[in-house]
Design brief:
The protein is of the alpha/beta class and about 325 residues long. It has 2 domains: about 230 residues, Rossmann fold (3-Layer(aba) Sandwich); about 90 residues, Rossmann fold (3-Layer(aba) Sandwich). The chain is about 50% helix and about 15% strand. It contains 14 helices and 10 strands. Helix 1 packs across helix 8, helix 9 packs parallel to helix 11 and helix 12 packs across helix 13. The protein binds pyridoxal-5'-phosphate.
C-alpha cells in the first residue's frame, strides 16, 4: 500500500492534499472562557469541519492515497462514531465503496449520518468488538480493505490540524489533546517536534477509559474497560502504532472524570458559543484541571486546547441543557 512514513515530511505532504479539500480551522480566543479558567486559552475549532470532527482530515488524506485494490474492492471499517463518518466521507470523495459495520445498538442518528454520505451500513453484533470481528470477516470475504483507525494515512491526515495550529500560534507553551486511539496526539507530537520544540503536549483521557494512559505509563500495550460517556474516547486498548510515538514524545498524560468533561462541554457552550461532544471537550477539561491545580501558572506561553468534535449525542445535549438550566 502507498503508505508514507509517520514523519514531519509525511505531514507536510498530507497537508497539501487535505488543504485542497478542507479550509484551515480557526484558532480562537474567547474572553469569557479565559475568565472561567483564570488564564488565557486558545481553542482550535475542529468542530467546524465537515462531519463535525477532526477525523475527516484522516478520511480526506486516505482518499487520495488509496491503492488500486482498495479502489476496486472498496473499504470496510467498524465504528459508530467519527471514524465511520470520516471513512465514508473519504470514500465518497474518491468514488469508492465503503461499508461501515456498527453494532445493532448504534443510535439511528449515527447510522443516518453515515448513510447520508452514501456509505453502506451493516448492523451486526451486540458490541463494537463483535462488529469489528464481522467487519474483518467481511473484508476477507469481499476483498475490501479493512481500515484501521490508526492507519498511517489517517494519522498523517489528523496531524495536519497541528501543522495549522503551530502556524497560527508558534509560541504556544502547552497544548492539551484528547486521546482515544492516540492518532491526534501522535500527530501533534510529530509536528511539535519539528516546529515548536518548546511547547509541551499533554494528553487527556477519561479515567473511565484509561487504556491509553495505562499503556503510556507502562511502556507496554495495556487494556482497560471503557465505561466513559465520551464515545470518542471509549477505547479499550492502547494502539501500538500511536503508543510508539507517544511513549517518548508526549510530555504528560492526565486523566479527567466524565463530570469534568461535562463541565468543560458546558464551558464551551456558555463561553465559546460551541457545541462539543464529550471527546471534543476533554482537552479543555484537562486544561481546566491544570489551571485549578495551579500547574504552570507562571506559564511559558499561551495554552491551547482542541475542540475535536461537535457530534454530541442526544444524552449529551440533554445533560448540557439540564446543567445550563440548573446553573
Ligand atoms: C476519535 C476522537 C477523539 C480521539 O482521537 P484519537 O485519535 O482516537 O486519539 C477525540 N475527539 C473526537 C471528537 C473524536 O472523534
Amino acid at each position: 500500500m502507498p503508505h508514507s512514513d509517520l514523519t514531519f515530511d509525511g505531514v507536510l505532504a498530507a497537508a497539501e492534499i487535505v488543504g485542497r479539500e478542507l479550509p484551515a480551522t480557526p484558532l480562537q480566543a474567547h474572553p469569557l472562557l479565559d475568565r472561567a479558567l483564570g488564564r488565557p486559552v486558545l481553542v482550535k475549532h475542529e468542530n467546524v469541519l465537515p462531519t463535525g470532527a477532526f477525523k475527516v482530515r484522516g478520511g480526506v488524506h486516505l482518499a487520495a492515497r488509496l491503492s488500486d485494490a482498495e479502489r476496486t474492492h472498496g473499504l470496510v471499517t467498524c465504528s459508530t462514531g467519527n471514524h465511520a463518518q470520516s471513512v465514508a466521507y473519504g470514500a465518497r470523495l474518491a468514488g469508492v465503496r465503503a461499508t461501515i459495520v456498527m453494532p445493532e445498538s448504534a443510535p439511528a442518528t449515527k447510522r443516518d449520518a453515515v448513510r447520508a454520505l452514501d456509505a453502506d451500513v451493516v448492523l451486526v453484533g451486540a458490541s463494537l468488538g463483535e462488529a469489528a470481528e464481522h467487519a474483518r470477516a467481511l473484508a476477507a470475504e469481499t476483498g475490501a480493505s479493512f481500515i484501521c483507525p490508526t492507519d498511517e494515512r489517517i494519522v498523517l491526515g489528523h496531524a495536519t490540524a497541528y501543522l495549522e495550529l503551530f502556524g497560527q500560534a508558534p509560541d504556544l507553551g502547552t497544548l492539551f489533546v484528547p486521546i482515544g486511539s492516540g492518532t491526534g496526539a501522535a500527530g501533534a507530537c510529530l509536528v511539535r517536534d519539528a516546529l515548536a520544540p518548546g511547547c509541551r503536549v499533554v494528553g487527556v483521557q477519561s479515567e473511565a477509559a484509561p487504556a491509553g494512559w495505562r499503556s503510556w505509563r507502562a511502556g507496554t500495550i495495556e487494556t482497560a474497560p471503557a465505561t466513559t460517556r465520551a464515545a470518542g474516547l471509549a477505547t479499550t486498548t492502547g494502539y501500538p502504532r500511536t503508543q510508539e510515538i507517544l511513549r517518548d514524545r508526549l510530555d504528560d498524560f492526565v486523566l479527567v472524570d466524565d463530570d469534568a468533561i461535562d463541565a468543560a462541554a458546558r464551558l464551551l457552550a456558555t463561553c465559546a458559543h460551541t457545541l462539543a461532544e464529550g471527546a471534543g471537550a476533554a482537552s479543555l477539561a484537562g486544561a481546566a484541571a491544570a489551571a485549578a491545580a495551579g500547574v504552570d501558572a507562571a506559564g511559558t506561553g499561551p495554552i491551547a486546547v482542541v475542540c475535536t468534535g461537535a457530534n454530541a449525542s442526544a444524552d449529551e445535549i440533554a445533560r448540557l441543557a439540564g446543567s445550563v438550566a440548573a446553573a
